[in-house]
Write a structure and sequence with these properties.
The chain is of the alpha+beta class. The protein has six helices and eight strands. Strands 1-7-8-4-3-5 form a six-stranded antiparallel β-sheet.
Length: 168
């Protein structure tokens, strides 16, 4: 069970090719944590990242910590001399979509989210905090050089997944 004073932390990587009917598979690195963060239910929350050309995924516990994220974002905006809009930030945080996933991790990606991040084929999942990012590989590969390690991880996970598919 996650610490009652902290949101679930997600670590790991994975790749899922697009399946029939816009289905993807939540990688095993995240399934148990999402389920734990969602009070034992298989509910994955999905949303467009507010600044990156990617989505975020998390369990249903994260909204309890939105007020803390708002304070962090307000401080970041002040440091970067940006205008902070509480209403816009809260609307961005709270617009997530709940998607059920089965024991194998399969879930349906809402088409509007797929369109927002230009998901043509598979998706790469990358953890690192109170949510994980979800990228169309071609979008991730277009990111600047600071993202090189994440791009390399994506390529490795894609090759690993495609190798498994060929052995079937």
């Amino acid at each position: 069970m996650p610490d009652s004073q902290a949101a679930m932390q997600y670590w790991g990587q994975g790749f899922s090719p697009r399946g029939e009917k816009n289905r993807f598979v939540l990688p095993s690195d995240f399934r148990a944590d999402v389920r734990t963060a969602s009070a034992g239910q298989r509910i994955l929350c999905l949303d467009k990242h507010p600044r990156l050309p990617a989505m975020v995924g998390f369990g249903t516990d994260r909204p309890r910590y939105f007020h803390l994220e708002m304070e962090e974002e307000k401080a970041r905006a002040k440091d970067e001399v940006e205008v902070f809009s509480r209403e816009l930030f809260m609307a961005q945080l709270s617009g997530f979509r709940r998607a059920n996933f089965d024991e194998s991790g399969r879930f349906v990606l809402p088409s509007y989210l797929s369109e927002m991040i230009a998901a043509e084929g598979g998706l790469y999942f990358h953890g690192g905090g109170n949510y994980f990012t979800i990228w169309p590989p071609e979008v991730l590969f277009a990111m600047p050089s600071g993202w090189d390690t994440i791009k390399a991880s994506c390529r490795a996970k894609m090759a690993e997944t495609m190798g498994k598919d060929r052995r079937k």
